[in-house]
Design goal:
Layout lengths: L5 H11 L11 H14 L1 H25 L2 H5 L3 H30 L16 H21 L2 H9 L3 H8 L3 H13 L2 H17 L8 H20 L2 H9 L9
Helix pairs in contact: 2-11, 3-5, 3-11, 5-6, 5-8, 5-11, 6-7, 6-8, 6-9, 8-9
């Protein structure tokens, strides 16, 4: 699929800044409208990438269940369970980063392909370390008072794409994500509640709707990522790689 024409990219770039208002809230109607239209134009690559990740997770679960009986899994010591969790993170973290950046590139009007989901496999160590640290922080927060854990789950949304896209360090990416989300924390909470409801409703479709909601989630978060973190200069650098056009702020 070719990149957008320069004029369309410019309109998309300008539209991002209309997603936010001075009260720290999203324009959910505009966000939904833009994201759905972008998803329609880029559905199959990101749909296939989501399906690949689900298959990888399912295959990992099948392998583990083949090695360990259910009774042994439920009675497994915390140390062994931790090793399995780390193995899962090593597999999923770079794929999640690749999928997140597919959503980001859709929001930038750039071309994507299904194989982009594997683009950050070489970044497995920093991405897995970041995901592991976030998981530990969320679990501690949930254990202490529940709400801190839920907050950290939402606030660290952009950690992996910041590492993969902006090449930030692990701690810097976590802090940067939290600072950005804090500016619109109410809107992010509403957004996550909406997607939680959509994911739960997908159960009644035998999970089929999940394969539509999941791509939409990554396009929506890609739109918000570019709105919060893409400067005019970064946008122009991305454009210059394939086109000679630049945009005025």
């Amino acid at each position: 699929m070719p990149d957008m024409q320069p004029d369309n990219k410019k309109a998309l770039y300008n539209d991002r800044f209309n997603l936010l208002n001075g009260k720290g809230l999203f324009d959910f109607r505009k966000l939904a409208s833009i994201s759905v239209n972008l998803l329609k134009s880029n559905f199959w690559p990101i749909f296939q990438a989501c399906a690949l990740i689900i298959l990888v997770v399912f295959a990992f679960a099948m392998v583990i269940s083949g090695i360990y009986p259910i009774e042994q899994l439920t009675a497994m010591p915390a140390e062994q369970q931790g090793i399995l969790d780390i193995a899962m993170i090593l597999i999923v973290a770079p794929l999640s980063a690749g999928l997140s950046l597919m959503g980001v590139n859709i929001a930038r009007g750039n071309r994507i392909k299904t194989s982009d989901v594997f683009r950050y496999l070489s970044w497995v160590l920093p991405l897995a370390l970041a995901q592991l640290l976030v998981t530990i922080l969320v679990q501690i927060g949930l254990t202490v008072l529940i709400l801190p854990g839920l907050y950290l789950f939402v606030a660290t949304t952009f950690t992996l794409p910041l590492i993969a896209d902006k090449k930030l360090g692990v701690l810097q990416a976590i802090i940067t994500s939290c600072k950005a989300v804090n500016q619109f924390i109410l809107s992010f909470i509403v957004l996550f509640v909406i997607f939680l409801v959509l994911f739960l409703l997908s159960i009644f479709t035998f999970g089929l709707a999940f394969l539509v909601i999941m791509p939409l989630y990554f396009v929506v978060t890609g739109m918000l990522y570019t709105t919060l973190f893409d400067t005019t200069e970064n946008h122009q650098v991305n454009e210059s790689a394939g086109q000679e056009s630049t945009f005025d702020a």
